[in-house]
Design brief:
Elements: E1 2-5, H1 13-22, E2 26-31, H2 37-43, E3 46-49, H3 55-62, E4 67-70, H4 81-99, E5 103-109, H5 122-131, E6 138-144, E7 146-147, H6 155-161, E8 164-166, E9 173-177, H7 179-190, E10 197-201, E11 205-208, H8 209-219, E12 227-229, H9 232-241, H10 246-261, H11 266-270
Parallel strand pairs: 1-2, 1-4, 2-3, 4-5, 5-6, 6-10, 7-9, 8-12
Antiparallel strand pairs: 9-11
Helix pairs in contact: 1-7, 3-4, 4-5, 9-10
């Protein structure tokens, strides 16, 4: 098969490319960074350098592909994140239509069933709705959970304050996933036939935040590391002081309220996958 991947050499796309190349497929990887050309070639893939906002470029990169994998790249500097994500989604949809692609696997998120109240995830809800309008294109949405690697964002808090926390309590639930586990699931789906517009959830583990703190504390030699619940205002101010742009701090604060209320997991709980861990 000829398969085109977005996501450059990121945490999911790189292992996904290795899986697909190892299975004998011809892989093209889209990246906005020309410096990644040699890295992509070393994987055994072909680099396509350009912007996902450039519909013409995307259409050319997608042309001839039996299937594509698409994801919206992070953009912490976007003044309106949802608008940015919608623009990328529209670009993907137009390119898929122009190129005549018939199958797409899409990185989405737990919580994408909701149109509001989930912070940055609302943009992935919009992406799903946009791609659902494509006729005669089979789309598989991979709704992934909180990435383990996101916990690295708490390193400074742990070092300097001796705590870990957010604007949800110690008994809040986290559904988590490892990028490699997500890549394995995407690799499974993109290599097999499917029809219609369907969703698959993936998760590696489920823990309370207190359990997360306990495991991390034991691993780094800080037994008893406490999980501390912040107010929304404290969470926002902490992220802003750490250098996160205001738009992103607002979005992540809102996502935290969705974790606290449990609305993030509503649809996930109706379609629970087998845990990978």
């Amino acid at each position: 098969m000829k398969i085109t991947l977005t996501g450059s050499t990121g945490n999911i796309t790189k292992p996904l490319a290795q899986i697909l190349i190892g299975a004998g497929h011809q892989v093209t990887i889209i990246s906005s960074d020309a410096a990644k050309t040699e890295i992509i070639a070393a994987l055994g893939a072909t680099a396509a350098i350009g912007s996902v906002n450039d519909t013409g470029f995307l259409a050319r990169a997608f042309t001839g592909a039996d299937a594509v994998y698409i994801m919206i790249p992070p953009n912490y500097g976007a003044p309106d994140l949802r608008k940015f994500m919608n623009e990328v989604g529209q670009s993907y949809a137009a390119a898929i239509k122009t190129a005549g692609v018939k199958r797409a696997v899409v990185l989405s998120s737990v919580g994408a069933h909701r149109s509001d109240g989930t912070g940055p995830i609302t943009g992935l809800h919009d992406l799903e709705q946009t791609l659902n309008t494509l006729e005669d294109v089979a789309v598989k949405y991979i709704r992934a959970p909180f990435f383990y690697i996101n916990l690295y964002a708490n390193v400074d808090m742990i070092k300097h304050a001796g705590i870990i926390g957010s604007n949800y309590p110690a008994d809040a639930r986290l559904v988590m996933g490892h990028p490699r586990d997500i890549a394995i699931v995407i690799g499974e789906e993109i290599q097999k036939p499917f029809t219609g517009k369907t969703v698959r959830y993936v998760a590696s583990d489920e823990r309370t935040t207190a359990e997360v703190a306990k495991v991390l504390g034991a691993a780094i030699g800080k037994p008893g590391l406490p999980w501390v619940e912040f107010t929304d205002e404290q969470a926002f101010e902490g992220m802003a002081q750490a250098g996160l742009p205001e738009e992103m701090a607002k979005k992540y604060t809102e996502m935290g309220t969705a974790v606290k209320s449990g609305i993030l997991w509503e649809d996930y709980d109706l379609h629970k996958p087998q845990l990978s861990a």
